[in-house]
Amino acid sequence: MDKHVTAPIDKETARSLKAGDYVYISGTIYTARDAAHKRMDETLRCGGALPVDIKGQMIYYMGPSPAREGRPIGSAGPTTASRMDKYTPRLLELGMGAMIGKGKRSPGVIDAIVRNGAVYFAAVGGAGALLSKCITSSEVIAYDDLGTEAIRRLTVEDFPAIVVIDSEGNNLYETAVREYMDTEGDMA
Question: 8, 47, 70, 148: which could form a disulfide with 56 (CB 3.0–4.6 Å)?
Fold first, then answer.
């Protein structure tokens, strides 16, 4: 089912989404990749404050290419989410509402998603140029020295994603394989 959601995301909306839902996201999201996650973790370990109030926020695991003239951002495809898995449970405990990336998540992240009523979306890998057309503004807000891995605030309009892991722990990567295997068995 197609759904439209606004970012940041509230708990009620996150809990209403189910694995397999097609979602169009509009509003404000933030980017952060490996280096930014490591720096945020170091900041928290030292008792510092994050550069963004994480409550309800969506973090898009993405580092863009340079913007072409007249565009706010270059190609903006997702990166592999599992590289952020060691940092994610802590951010979820602090109130992060959703993540956007590609690929599987660890059992620890899935448990944290369920505990905190969050959601994990996948964006289509290899479609960064198309995804960038849904981004209407981009501004570096922290860790400028990290280049493409700096934290950016993006304004998105109808950014397409699919719910992979919902707030109940349902995992599209697992259910889709089971459904496929059942279909294949029926054909034999």
Answer: 8
Question: Could you give the CA distance from residue 187 to residue 45 in angstroms, rounded to a whole number?
Answer: 54
For residues 16-29, average pLDDT: 97
Q: What is the 3-state secondary structure (H, E, C) of 139-165?
A: EEEECHHHHHHCEEEEEEEEEEEEEEE
Tell me the C-alpha distance between 114 and 136, whole Å. Answer: 31
Taking only the tens place, the pLDDT of each residue in 122-173 is 998 888 888 999 999 999 999 999 999 999 999 999 999 999 999 999 999 9
C-alpha 96 chain-centroid distance = 10
Q: Average pLDDT in the 23-31 region? A: 98
φ/ψ of 72, rounded to 5, equals -80, -15
Of 64, 63, 59, give the one whose Cα is nearest residue 85.
59
Burial pattern 81-117, b for ≥16 Cβ within 10 A else e, equals: bbebbebbbbbbeeebbbbbbbebbeeebbebbbebb
Q: Cα 127 from chain centroid?
A: 15
